[in-house]
Design a protein that fits this description.
Layout lengths: L1 H9 L20 H8 L12 H16 L5 E4 L2 E7 L2 E8 L6 H17 L7 E6 L5 H9 L2 E7 L2 E4 L13 E2 H5 L2
Parallel strand pairs: 3-4, 4-5, 6-7
Antiparallel strand pairs: 1-2, 2-3, 5-6
């Protein structure tokens, strides 16, 4: 038991720890900070909550409810799942307070691919939710992988590649609206 306690302290899993450290806009500076920042993505037994991620999730839930879509949050490590027009969707939220936009994109892509193709039998449609706009090359890559990309822009959620899942246009604003923002 003493060994497990020391391991938990070494890896930042002290009992009762529920919130990730706040790095502000700086990247984690050492291995221990990285491990704490990414523990949720690595499948650590104790989830660490990133406040920016939690705020994004609350805003997304509010948005989906307003569109009469019932979200299911944090089931089997998937950030959000919901149904639109008889299609099942799963999504991963990534915020950039500890990640660069490209890192957030890569991690989210990997997670939704694994969740959709390895951890489920029904292969739901995939969405990544980001807090920063993405360059055209990355949006094109996501489109080739049949992954919808949604960004949060002020109080709206913008669908960057509506051709991937056209039914999402009833839930998220298409890209044309983002150009006017």
């Amino acid at each position: 038991m003493l060994f497990r306690s020391r391991v938990n302290i070494f890896f930042g899993r002290a009992q009762g720890a529920e919130q990730s450290p706040d790095y502000g806009n700086r990247r984690p500076g050492n291995f221990d900070e990285y491990r704490k920042a990414y523990s949720y993505a690595l499948g650590e037994p104790n989830r660490i909550v990133n406040p920016a991620h939690q705020h994004y999730q609350v805003d997304l839930k509010r948005h989906l409810n307003a569109k009469h879509v019932k979200p299911e949050l944090e089931k089997d490590f998937v950030d959000v799942g919901f149904w639109v027009k008889d299609r099942h969707f799963i999504g991963e939220i990534k915020v950039t307070n500890c990640l660069t936009p490209s890192e957030a994109f890569r991690i989210a892509i990997g997670q939704v691919l694994e969740y959709s193709w390895v951890k489920t039998n029904d292969h739901p449609r995939m969405i990544i939710f980001l807090d920063q706009n993405m360059d055209e090359a990355r949006v094109a890559l996501a489109s080739r992988l049949e992954i919808a990309v949604v960004i949060k822009s002020d109080d709206d959620f913008i669908l960057l590649n509506p051709e991937v899942s056209p039914e999402l246009k009833s839930v998220f604003s298409p890209i044309a609206k983002a150009a006017n923002a």
